[in-house]
User: Fold this.
Amino acid sequence: ILGNTRQQASDRVFNDARAANGETMLYVLPDRGVVGHGGTITEGDMSYAAGSVPLTLHQYNISFSAGTTSDTDISGAAREANEIEDFRELVEAPLAAHLASEIQGDAADVAMLGSASAQVISGTMTMWDAWSDVASNIRAAYSGGDMFAAVGPRAKGVAARGAANQFNPAEDISKLWREATIGRYTGATFFETPDVRALTTGTCVLTAAGISVTSYTAATNTLVIGATSLTGTIKKGTVLYVGNVRQTDVYGKDTGAKFAFVVQEDATCSSNAATLTVQPVYTSGAKVNATAAPQAGDTVVSPLGPSKIYQRSLMWDRAGIGTGFGRLADLKKAENFRFELLEKGLFFHGAEVGDGINYRNIWRLDMLTGTAVTLSNWVGVVFVEV
Assistant:
């Protein structure tokens, strides 16, 4: 996921004098202007106001210590590095993979929380239908870059079972049946990763009629909903449809697709009401994504049932997700090393150092990164109950 996003790196080197966590970078989005008719223009036509999306960097790390307390202690303490048969295979590789998985999983979560397009598999709909619908929503918003999808193993298995219904070449169908390989579909390149985490919904029944908006506060993205009977919990990642709010393209025109309001934090219903934080809604400007903001009295309904597990697939245009990276300063008196995959904009920092007091070696790998949705209508999620 990180390798297929809009990327930028900070030249600022973080050291002991400045904490890495919490540093903010800004992605600038263009104002696409106003198309006029005739030979006359106004001051308003010429106004330009770019938008910006904040992206917060977080430092991730994973470490390993190798030392000996006695020659016979093999049950609790890690052994000396040179006693491990294959240090790279048994230590470096699995720890680095764990770090990468955690970072990618968090990036996928951020992307799904910021998406404006959602499709839930129901009835006779297949995974292929849903992927096609979400991809169409992204393209309808005038995305023009490369498109990608990240699919979990269980969702991919569901797709493979329905592959025979697709008019694909026999060779592709054979791969789907034998290896569940998707490759490219509906203009997107697909990847499989367990890092696209499943969603377990809360106990609140949001599929019933009678739920409506009590209030909406744009400054804090707060949506208050209520009903005559509203109890239970609502989980982060839950999708809501509100009234007739629809997605727009980047020029502010209605695409006809429902805007998916995504709950950003867990909430508990109280007194037949729930106060929810949702992703930002913009009805104009460089970040425009919706035809209208929620209004009091608008109906509210979720396409997701209560207390269910849904496997999610993430689809996005490259420029719909932003990834930021920062460089870390070297650790003094340590053997510092870096992985800088410049073609993908990935910056890893590692260090090995001896701990003379405890007679052990310490190995660590760090990454300073953050993810943000830059254009929510260029990101979508497909849900399938498992």
